[in-house]
């Protein structure tokens, strides 16, 4: 049986989006990893599955899976894409996404840019999570990174020059550091001004991506905590820029950026190993 999907991206961080609100399609982690493979499958950074919401006030339950089949509690760029997909389907600019990180209100603006309230970051060591009680503003690792969770674990390194570290070398080593019992997404940031930074992210389970929404949120939170930037900051990544605000009133992080549909298609799940 052929299953329809939408191929979408947020600043080049790309996704396969499958709707399971009516029926399940037997998407095991192994099958998801096979579908995410850029040579033998459709190819994507994350595989996104829509399920019926099971919390009051939510429009849809969204699950995010990395290219290795592991599940993530948050995916900022994909959250914008899901909000855009819902709007194109029912014409409502506002939606609420139920995720493992909580309920995320989203709005598709008149210009087409999408804003998602990513919720409040978790800053305690056990909530990132880390393997031991440490100050999350200064982890006991070379390079003195900071850590925060946006529903998924992030470590942010602040570099004088973003080219001082090669994410392809440092990323996989740090992703699997024993300090991160659930692994971690590794951000490499260069502060450009009080209102802007450059960022590259080695993503847990997916590798170096062109952009990372939750990574941008975590990087701004960590930079504000260190007094490096203002609460509204532009985050420039290889694939483009996001506007991030860590709102003082309620501690929530707002992320605004584009969402793009590249194409739609179908696949036969039985053609992939389960
Ligand atoms: N690309 C996503 C992040 C995926 C995070 C995932 N790699 C994890 O295991 O936490 C974003 O835009 O936020």
Automatic annotation (TrEMBL):
EC numbers: 5.1.1.7
Pathway(s) served: Amino-acid biosynthesis; L-lysine biosynthesis via DAP pathway; DL-2,6-diaminopimelate from LL-2,6-diaminopimelate: step 1/1
Catalytic activity: (2S,6S)-2,6-diaminopimelate = meso-2,6-diaminopimelate
Residues the UniProt record annotates as site (Could be important to modulate the pK values of the two catalytic cysteine residues): 154, 203
Location in or out of the cell: Cytoplasm
InterPro entries for this protein: DAP_epimerase_AS, DAP_epimerase_DapF
Annotated PROSITE patterns: DAP_EPIMERASE
Key words of the record: Amino-acid biosynthesis, Cytoplasm, Isomerase, Lysine biosynthesis
GO biological process, one term: lysine biosynthetic process via diaminopimelate
GO molecular function: diaminopimelate epimerase activity
Amino-acid biosynthesis as UniProt keyword: yes
GO cellular component, one term: cytosol
Catalytic residues as annotated in Swiss-Prot or TrEMBL: 75, 75 (proton donor), 212 (proton acceptor)
Positions annotated to bind substrate: 13, 46, 66, 76-77, 152, 185, 203-204, 213-214
Family the entry assigns: Belongs to the diaminopimelate epimerase family.
Record function comment: Catalyzes the stereoinversion of LL-2,6-diaminopimelate (L,L-DAP) to meso-diaminopimelate (meso-DAP), a precursor of L-lysine and an essential component of the bacterial peptidoglycan.
Record note on quaternary structure: Homodimer.
Protein name: Diaminopimelate epimerase
Species of the source: Gluconacetobacter tumulicola
